Here is the input.
Amino acid sequence: MVSPAGQPKELHFFDRAWEVPLTTADVERYRRYFPVPPGAVAGEWTPGYLIDFWTPELIARAAPEARILVLLRDPLERFSSGLTHQLATTRAPLGDRDIQGAFQRGLYAPQLRRVLAAFPADQVWVGQYEACRADAAAQLALTYAFLGLAPHTLSEVALRGEVNPTTRVKFDPSPSLRSSLLAGYAPDLAQLPDLVPGLDLSLWPTAREVGLA
Here is the structure.
């Protein structure tokens, strides 16, 4: 898999498509981001596409043959990590909309349903952050196989290296907020095994804590 020279990993191409209709010219412009030689594949990685409800359908229009990679993380860990990142990049104090937005991003079932409504299931691969941390080589092999690429081995140093590691104290929800988050995430977590049969809820402390693994 290659990233065309000069192209950022996250294009955010469809971010404003909720207010500006996607045109044929837009589709052609999007496709020009991915010139690749025969035998290679190219793509982008924009996490916001999963939460933005309008995006999966538009991606299907722009790139109907695309293979979709989704990486999920324990929702409570994702909640804390997202707010930690926000606090590291802005001086504004957290507000109720920040808390609500961080919570919504961890409700994976409706997000996955939108993706699976736009793409056939065999074009969608759902991985888990925790599995990648535990055995990066195995997960990389699965990813390459899903993309139809020949196996590729990376060094142990490359597999274990961290990109943009967190350096500030992680956001820690209060006991009352944490209790509310657990109650809020439990119904969503219960839906995931039917949507993604291979998902291992036992990898997520939140799922274990609410009795789903």
User: Anything to note?
Assistant: The radius of gyration is 18 Å.
